Amino acid sequence: MENKTFKIIGAGCVALLLVIGILSINQSMGINEVLEMQGRINEQASVKELYVCGDGSSNLAAVRLSQVYPGIEVKKIMSDVSTGADITMLSLLASNTAPDVYKDIASRAGRYAVPEFALDISKYMDLSNFYPAAIEQFRKGDGIYALTKAVRIIGMFINTDITGSIPENWTINDFLDICEKVKSKGKMPYVYFAANASSCEWLLGWFPAFGVDFFQNKDYSKTTIKSTGGEKVFAFLLDLFNRGYIPSESGVLSDDDVQAGFLNETYAMSGTYIGSFDAAIQSQVDQGVIKDKFNYEFRAFPSATGKKVSLVANFHIVVAHKSENEYRNKAAAYLAYQIASDQDLEVSGGQFPTVNNCTVTSDNIHWQRGKKITEENGLADIGFHLAAYGEIRGSLYPVLKKLFNNQITALEAVTLYEKAINAAIENAK
After folding, report:
1. Fewer beta carbons within 10 angstroms: which end of the chain, N or C?
2. pTM of full prediction above 0.90
3. Residue 196: how many other CB atoms lie within 10 Å
4. Which residue ranges does the chain devote to CATH 3.40.190.10?
């Protein structure tokens, strides 16, 4: 009993001495301030790892984090997006183990760029390095809840060995003439796929081509796709299908099928990202599968209105998940900032920077053309930054399946699509 008492008294003395020692550092500190400081120390000690989920993150960002927040290791979780949704992220959320940082295309990650889930990164980091247009779309009130990576531009990919030369400011009539010429050669003029949600952005360029607006005057409460002429787009696509300018199996083709068809020069044209086929084509040449690179160009979609056609953009965003541990929040915000601002690799691969300090440019001729077209034609507002866009994105290909199976008319198609978009917007509120 005496020994126990001695130990208790001894431990109490040690604790008292610690408190006195801390108080002696700054005699103006009261007990509440001491306890608060101890809480911060405990918070810091508890953060050993930060988890990043998505399609990979910058090693440079992890190095920079270790310099400012030593002792924190970055753990990467690769996402499974084989179905078009991020199965991994959904599983983590279901098990209440949300990652500290999430990086993915905005159409999947946008739903998490909200105050209920994400940190206001502007509270922790100076965001003046980012182009305002790139991050303002993720503002909610006074906060910025996501940062934008480099932007991927979507236009028309054209194998000019098959099509021949393309008029500089081509029109829908030019496009149809080329389709007929290509078909007469036994090739498929244009290809589209509707097996999964990834097909959405590849097709969206037809809407600005016909002067159709998804939204007007930044009013995202409802879509204007039907009232601005969306029926014409579906009628046009159905006409291409009926003329044999699109594969009859379009409803079941995937993006991998489309790429394979381009590589073996079965298909002449398709909407896609700048540079998306470059590496695959070079790989086929290196492996001896094809003898030489075929000639190809990147263009805006052909115009049905006589006006310049704005391009559709796709981009990744980075979201930092908020927690009750403020030290973790600071570290997560710092890591998210570093991942988002490190854009050299993406830009060298054909994407366009969203930060001021990116010194990399691309000598790729398609990148140069895409940059020129973007500067001249601008970008279409398809609501890609909206929290609802993940659901919006998945609503187009089921409509196209029905259209290509002659189950619905063009008017019914645009009506269904409009209804699905508005339902997604409503569900996201």
Report:
1. N
2. no
3. 17
4. 47-151+314-348, 152-312+365-427
